[in-house]
Specification:
Strand content of chain B: 15-25%
CATH superfamily of the largest domain in chain A: Transferase(Phosphotransferase) domain 1
CATH class of the largest domain in chain A: Mainly Alpha
CATH class of the largest domain in chain B: Alpha Beta
CATH superfamily of the largest domain in chain B: ATPase, nucleotide binding domain
CATH architecture of the largest domain in chain B: 2-Layer Sandwich
Radius of gyration of chain B: 20 Å
Strand order of the largest sheet of chain B: 3-2-1-4-5
Oligomer: heterodimer
Structural class of chain A: alpha+beta
Radius of gyration of chain A: 18 Å
Order of helices and strands of chain B: EEEHEHEHEEEHHEEHHEHEH
Shape of chain A: globular
CATH topology of the largest domain in chain B: Nucleotidyltransferase, domain 5
Chain lengths: 221, 333
């Protein structure tokens, strides 16, 4: 399946195809950009489908921009079309944090990511899909991408879930305990007063039985 | 594959008292008796339902034994949970009695696993994502590596509970599903309701509150239509997300809400769009029945499970993630 691209865009390649959206690398006005398009679903009645795609496109664009205002690096938005369900944004060149696993720089990157996530949470934003694949290292900067499952929230539970997902994805690594500690050190430095309660909730979540989804991610991811 | 086995299964989780007999291999349904409790008012009253099951247990067993030869039974299975305690105990008591009388092994079966496995054997699905939807359950499940991984579920009430509770408020009889489906087919006007999807989880309580507040203010057909379109879109969306994440191209629905034509139609469309396969099967096996308990009894027995009568206490809160799943394709014939 391919998506209808915004005018003036030429597809270079498809970067990712998920259940909800297609992410294309494109050329636009002589530069490389990313277009994320939410796919129309024929199983949903048209009216409902339009509504969902429109509101999610607006929310994602808004989160990307709010995060940037809070000092968290995210792609620049060039253009949004909620009716057609796409966001046109800057292409962040670089390696994903996932591909850096095992390198000597990895622990310090995880520590920096902790302070970035702290900033994000302090601004009342949760990412919703915080895995090393959604962190790009570009020219020495750490850039967060894909806010498709994100939301505005100050709930301790949601913030703790955000961190739990990241910590779980590190679990297969031999030094995961040190890494988790370094992440939390970074987090504490910027998350503000709620950091303590979030960490406490994180410990609670990790002994709960029902988070099977994340268990699976740990095994596959 | 092992020896040929014939299993008698007793279902009494909620409103259905069922006895089924299944033979394997090859898979063959020998008998399917059902007695369904209809509440006099409101939803299920557990003790009233248990009384119904008790009153029907002996005639259902008699009817079963008129259709099969009792000497053929190798195995006795019962629905051990999750479900309503008083109801489960009736089926368990009958199953223990049969097992003792015949001197055959007793197998306690997980009701949710039985729904999944009857769907798998009827569709021959090798590696499906399963949407399990009923009055008490809403889960997205992937059977893998000897266990059931629950990828997503409702954070509050089950989708069947949403439908029944709304139907009750609107004065429709229990169970609400068939009437809601019929009324929904007469409308195409969408009323905006909360659409609550978080990752692979869903939530329906906000939708129920809003629907209840609109009863009497909006035409009932439009409310039914909007409920179905919104709730089912949420369920299909999380199912598709699970399929995409796992790279799975088979999809099945299990549980009573699967009897809804609109839900199955949406499942078909979702699969067609992503070049996957929605595997459907005869609608009577979506609802609770004894056949699925008998079949799951065979599956679990072949995996080495059986119970001593003394330890066969029911488990009303037995989670699916604590059950062993059979290797894919092992029981495909």
């Amino acid at each position: 399946m391919s998506s209808l691209l915004p005018q003036g865009c030429t597809r270079i390649k498809t970067l990712y195809q998920g259940a909800e959206a297609i992410v294309d690398l494109c050329e636009w006005l002589g530069r490389e950009v990313v277009v994320k398009t939410r796919i129309a679903k024929s199983y949903r009645v048209r009216e409902l489908d339009d509504l969902i795609r429109r509101s999610r496109t607006i929310r994602e664009a808004s989160l990307l921009s709010s995060a940037k205002k809070a000092g968290v690096e995210t792609p620049f938005i060039y253009h949004v079309n909620p009716v057609e369900g796409w966001i046109l944004m800057s292409y962040v060149k670089g390696e994903s944090l996932r591909s850096m696993q095992g390198s000597s720089m990895f622990p310090s990157l995880v520590n920096r990511l902790g302070s970035i996530v702290g900033k994000l949470h302090a601004a009342g934003i949760v990412h919703g899909d915080l895995t090393p694949a959604n962190v790009i290292i570009s020219g020495g900067r750490l850039v967060l991408i894909d806010f498709g499952l994100g939301e505005y929230s100050n709930e301790v539970e949601k913030k703790a879930e955000d961190i739990y997902m990241l910590v779980s994805s590190l679990a297969p690594l031999p030094d995961h305990e040190v890494l988790a500690k370094m992440f939390l050190e970074g987090y504490r430095s910027s998350a503000g007063e709620s950091a303590g309660r979030v960490e406490e909730r994180l410990r609670e979540i990790s002994v709960r039985g029902r988070y099977v989804e994340k268990e699976l991610r740990r095994r596959t991811g | 594959m092992g020896e040929r086995l014939t299993c008698i299964g007793v279902e009494s989780t909620a409103h259905t008292f069922g006895i089924g007999v299944v033979r394997h291999s090859p898979f063959e349904i020998l008998c399917d008796i059902r007695r369904v409790y209809r509440p006099s008012s409101g939803g299920i009253h557990p003790s009233e339902a248990a009384k119904h099951h008790l009153q029907n247990a002996s005639n259902a067993l008699k009817e079963t034994l008129s259709k099969i030869r009792v000497e053929d039974i190798d195995l006795v299975a019962f629905s051990r949970g999750p479900g309503l305690g008083p109801c489960l105990r009736v089926g368990a008591a009958l199953a223990r009695m049969i097992a003792i009388k015949l001197g055959k092994p007793l197998v306690g079966v997980n009701h949710a696993a039985a729904h999944v496995e009857i769907a798998r054997v009827l569709t021959r699905a090798a590696n499906p994502v399963v949407l399990y939807v009923s009055g008490g359950n809403t889960q997205v499940i992937h059977p893998s590596e000897g266990r059931y991984v629950v990828l997503g579920e409702t954070e509050d009430i089950a989708v069947g509970n949403l439908i029944d509770a709304f139907a009750r408020k609107a004065g429709l009889e229990f169970p609400g599903g068939p009437r809601v489906m019929e009324l929904a087919s007469k409308s195409s006007r969408l009323i905006r309701l909360p659409y609550s999807v978080k990752g692979m989880n869903v939530s329906f309580s906000g939708m129920l509150t809003m629907l209840e507040s609109l009863v009497g203010k909006e035409p009932i057909e439009d409310l039914c239509f909007s409920l179905q379109e919104t709730a089912f879109s949420m369920l299909i969306e999380v199912s598709e997300r699970a399929m995409a994440m796992l790279g799975v191209d088979e999809f099945i629905i299990a549980g009573g809400v699967g009897a809804n034509r609109r839900l199955r139609e949406m499942a078909g469309e979702m699969c067609r769009d992503r070049k996957a396969f929605f595997l459907d099967y005869p609608v009577e096996y979506y609802a609770d029945n004894g056949v699925m308990i008998a079949w799951e009894g065979i599956v679990q027995y072949r995996l080495g499970e059986s119970l001593r009568v003394e330890e066969s206490i029911v488990k009303p809160r037995w989670r699916l993630s604590d059950v062993k799943s059979p290797p894919s394709g092992l029981y495909s014939n």
